[in-house]
User: Fold these one by one.
Assistant:
Number 1:
Amino acid sequence: MTENNVDESKDRAINSKRWPALGIGLLVLIIAVCLFVSRGKSGPQEGTVVIKAGAATLGSFTVADLRKLPAVEKKVVVQSNCSNNCGNNSGNNSGNSGENSSEHEFTGTPLLGVLNSIDPGLTQKHKKIITRGVDYYSQVLEMSEVLQPDNVYIVYADNGKSLQTKAGGEGSLQVIVCNDISGQRFTKWLVSLELQ
Ligand SMILES: Nc1nc2c(c(=O)[nH]1)N[C@H]1C(S)=C(S)[C@@H](COP(=O)(O)O)O[C@H]1N2
Ligand SMILES: [Mo]
């Protein structure tokens, strides 16, 4: 009788140690399954930019594709805080560096060359490009700006280092507009270009 009781309480002690471990194991399993499922369904991927026109997908390019094109180094001081009239686009912002500006030395390639490598007719057929980041941030580029020499680039490195993804990983792309250093149109974490 007493021996039985001791056995039972031992069993209970073992069980009460096992259940939490099982629970944690199950949780880990559920998290792993969720991660696996969401991996397959992931939306736009940073490091790959899709070029669209209306409902059609015209092509795409990756960081690796861009690295094969002629590389250009661009030193730019971006006026990242535009509370003091830097959006007027006068290009008269020199000497205004300090807290509100950030210095970059980007490496990239002209957007024009990228578009031409997909279809040389694109710049004639379309008037504007909507640039979009992984955070759905979007901006407008006029095709006339893209056609200007030394103006619009897609960049993949800053100060010799690969651009970071929004999550802090390696391998992202960004737009820079050298004739508009107000910074707003420097779409980071670029995932699509929509031709209009
Ligand atoms: N995807 C994305 N790109 C973005 C933004 C943003 O919120 N999301 N902010 C813009 C603004 S308002 C500025 S001033 C610059 C800031 O660039 P910096 O942080 O490299 O100086 O990024 C631009 N590009
Ligand atoms: Mo900004």
Note: The chain is about 30% helix and 30% strand.
Number 2:
Amino acid sequence: MSALMGKAVVNFGPGIPWEMREYPVPSPKPGAMVLKISMASICGSDVHAYLGEFGGPKGVRQKPSILGHEFVGRVHELGEGVCTDTVGRRLEVGDRVLWSPSMLCGRCPSCLREVVPCPNRKEHQGTTSDDWPHFKGAFAEYYYLNPGQWVYKVPDVVPDSAAVYVDCAAATVAYALTKVDFPMGSWGLIQGAGGLGLCAAPMMKDRGARVIVVDKRAERLELARAFGADHTIDGTEYPTPESRIERVRELTKGVGPEVVLEVVAGAPEVVPEGLEMLAIGGTYLTVGLVGPYPVTIEMGPFINKGLRLIGSAQFKAATMADVLDLMERTIDKYPWDKVISHTFRLEDTEEAIKQAAAGKVVRAAVVMD
Ligand SMILES: [Zn+2]
Ligand SMILES: [Zn+2]
């Protein structure tokens, strides 16, 4: 084991202040690698964990763990036998890479049929950061990547501030969109212009669709237009579902969008509204409403319009490569680096999470270098 030490921000459960700790940087076992993290972004699920919306009870001190699962960095040390990334490109110490914290099990019925989600998806090894190899989350200077975890070289033109949220924000929405078709001349509508919604706009454009984005925050809608939205609908200007549905009819010449994508957090009332906006035969794609959100659907119109409702979670290894390819091709066209709206130092990670919880940022990131 090397004498090098690395910093990590560890948490003990909701309601307990986070602490900065130092751990020895491990040497990788055969097939593994150690990565030096440059930037880590804060995902909605980190906020849920911080607030105790799932996980342990609030105020009860748990074993220390490192949160965070969206990161980018460089190869620090390669274990014996590792010389390429997941798609076979040569890897050397110092190469810029992004990677996935999770692994599919490979043996459940879903994995065997090559569909996701995998119900047995593993999030690294164990939960405590006091146990070797310590570096198991994103809010730290290093990360220990097990054999089999996906890792990709990042194209030079894609900055850290774009690569950092490929897994999970961008890949989650990219994978959801593989489940729908965009026939010639079709429209896609995105409910919610947060990180996922902004990413979805160029992805729909790349598939040939015209795009409408609905949100209530003017600055997010401006960003959505920079991300390729043909039209935006401001919920403060069109305050009722009826007025928004009417506006969508106008924009789509009475036809409606073939796809409505829901990427909102905690607003289940958007579902019936989105279903009503859809074109005949259209698909409602739901990604953001993870949580106990009951929704009432009027079945008559749903059946008579021949609609489809599809949920989507997780993604495949290939999705990450596809997102990186899209970013590389369109880095001059869309402001991929602007999804990260605020950056913080590693020691201010808890403050970054608080601001994300308060909705003050599009997406916050912690910068280590
Ligand atoms: Zn996430
Ligand atoms: Zn599986």
Note: The chain has a mean pLDDT of 94.
